[in-house]
Amino acid sequence: SNLLKDRLRELIPVKQALLRDIRKQYGQKEICKVTVDQAIGGMRNVFGLFYDISLLDSKTGITFRDYNIPEIQEYLQKAKNGNEPLPEALFWLLLTGDFPSDQEFKFVQEEWRRRGELDQETIKFITSLPKQLHPMTMLSLSILHLQKDSTFQKVYESGKATKPQYWEYYYEDAMDLVAKIPRVAALIYRHKYKNGDLISSDNSLDWAANYSHMMGFDQFDAYELFRMYLSIHADHEGGNVSAHATHLVGSALADQYLSYSAGINGLAGPLHGLANQEVLKWLIEIREKLGDKVSNEKIQEYVLNTIREGRVVPGYGHAVLRYTDPRYIHQKNFAERLIKDDPLVELVKQCYHVIPPVLKTIGKIQNPWPNVDAHSGVLLNHYGLKEFEYYTVVFAVSRALGCTANLVWARAFGLPIERPGSITMRWIEERFGEN
Ligand code: NMX
Ligand code: MLT
């Protein structure tokens, strides 16, 4: 039997009824007012999206179905002798709201093993991509290529898809996409950086460790890093660019592949996921220009110069968070536990003490504290993944968990096409002007 689909079949009518009740009871309540500034200013604090699988609090950070990062670390399945949560278990939690039993966890793991292989045509497509493309462009193209296998697209085209069943086809596509994306990503890495010297999957490994293995990193601690990384980046409520783009495109009934490829394109922007490559580039630049042992004063000066040049300090600031990102703290703890004497890791630690006070002096920056991207690069670098242009691909492998799980629920709830209104300057003047 299909444990996860069966569980969803039980849950969906219950949640649909709950949502109907919520609409009946609270449908006419006002959530917030929207000012002209908010409409022009990227809709900060405008709560206009319904996204049930995770929530972000500006002070305490992300919760996945109400559980924060220390809780998922404690309660989700871990590898033997490991400390980090396994993404298979997190995916079950995101989809169902429950912690999986060992049997349910193994079900997801087996399903992803079964669905994970790529056909020869896809391998040929990926290994023929021009090597000068950015790896995020390669990933987005490869996910679009996989769309040929979309169950939803096929059934919809046949005219046999009915609205109450849409979620089932989105579920099939979510499971296939998530099962395959580490292989796609590892193939891109080996094609672009290792002369196409491919490494086959090892199905005795869990999903995250297998990705690390296919990249060429076979230490236990590298496996742990991938388990941790792929869990903590999985979702960040619905308003971030990658989740929102996926949700929006999916609302037009574009399948999981078309929708997540759009999400990946947004993640590839330097103000969003690409910041993790920018952080490492920036830290290496500091060491090249200022030497191995950099003083706090020199870092302060470097930060101010970056800003004077009209650039942002990568890895710092956030549109919602107003304190240090708990995902940063989790990575800091990981580094303290497992990494000794790495100068770049030490530099990240030093920056954590030095940068926020400098950013506080620039009045306009709402959040001077580090976000998730400030730490991830030096950890990947430590275990041998030196090609920082590739870092956002690892982020994208993880974010597939949240974005695709949400689309299953978006279809289960029968959410309509997203179509907010927009306004012009003339509209604003006519509405609010004196005459
Ligand atoms: N360095 C320099 N200036 C900054 C920074 C920063 N780290 N953060 C914000 N500002 C500036 C921002 O550019 C804006 O300037 P202006 O009015 O001249 O356009 C001003 O401060 C106000 O911005 P905020 O309201 O504080 O931030 P906003 O919500 O608009 O943007 C980010 C949030 C995350 C885009 C912004 O903080 C940033 O660019 N950070 C650096 C890039 C980064 O680390 N992105 C990763 C985010 C996490 N992720 O993975 O997606
Ligand atoms: C994310 O993980 O998506 C980022 O922190 C950006 C965001 O939440 O806006």
From TrEMBL:
InterPro entries: Citrate_synthase (IPR002020), Citrate_synthase_AS (IPR019810)
Molecular function per GO: acyltransferase activity, acyl groups converted into alkyl on transfer
Pfam families cross-referenced by the UniProt entry: Citrate_synt
Entry keywords, A to Z: Transferase
CDD domains: ScCS-like (cd06103)
GO terms, biological process: carbohydrate metabolic process; tricarboxylic acid cycle
GO CC, alphabetical: mitochondrial matrix
Recorded superkingdom: Eukaryota
Family: Belongs to the citrate synthase family.
Protein name: Citrate synthase
